[in-house]
Specification:
mainly alpha, Four Helix Bundle (Hemerythrin (Met), subunit A), 8 helices
């Protein structure tokens, strides 16, 4: 059971943390700005690189996630204040045993003891779109299948030869030239080779005259 002094200390800690979160949430998302251009300082997005706009989108998404965490912590603090008013603060909501003061110092909003706080289930469900999509550009490698047909990787290699936003730091292997800044640029995609004349021999072992002439012409070139 917490003493009055310990309960007062927990109240002060929660009250101070509450003010910190409220100050953090104020204008954290820049909601006082009407347009996104005012947030980034840009008058127009027409001349901006897509990578710059992607950075701004990432920062905006990160702020939203931090804001969600702060709101959840504020909700837990309000529950702790309510538990103090009811006299149930510091008591496990599952087993009814006292929560150690050391745990409350580490997590002032804790409403369960260590034994029951660890009994959490985590969802391992994956997005439904992964049933038809793969994050691996070469899914054949994941299935250990040697497929030499023209696939989406070959298509991407042809397109990326004309340039992309990737640099040396975006690739896992070393590249000798900026003209090779695409995956597997050293891969040899040779076309079909010409048929040698001796392959055209008949069942009797004699060469077809037309194929033999073609073979001689190839050797003389």
């Amino acid at each position: 059971m917490l003493t009055d002094k310990q309960l007062s200390q927990m109240f002060d800690i929660l009250h101070e943390r509450e003010h910190e979160l409220i100050d953090q949430l104020k204008d954290q998302l820049g909601l006082k700005y009407e347009f996104s251009q005012e947030i980034s300082g840009e008058l127009s997005n027409y001349d901006n690189h897509p990578g710059d706009q992607g950075t701004e989108l990432f920062e905006r998404s990160k702020d939203l996630a931090l804001n969600e965490h702060a709101e959840k912590e504020l909700e837990d603090i309000n529950k702790a204040f309510h538990a103090m008013e009811e006299g149930t603060y510091g008591i496990c909501a599952v087993c009814g045993q006292d929560i150690p003061y050391e745990r409350l110092e580490a997590v002032p909003t804790a409403d369960k003891c260590m034994e029951h706080a660890s009994e959490q289930t985590f969802s391992r469900e994956r997005p439904v779109e992964e049933e038809v999509m793969s994050s691996n550009i070469r899914s054949e490698e994941a299935r250990d299948v040697d497929n030499t047909a023209y696939d989406r990787e070959d298509a991407w290699q042809e397109v990326s030869r004309y340039g992309s936003s990737d640099g040396p730091s975006d690739l896992y292997d070393d590249q000798d030239s900026y003209n090779e800044m695409y995956p597997n640029s050293d891969e040899n995609n040779a076309g079909p080779e010409g048929i040698e004349g001796y392959i055209s021999a008949g069942e009797d072992g004699k060469y077809d005259e037309q194929a033999l002439d073609h073979f001689r012409n190839q050797k003389s070139e």
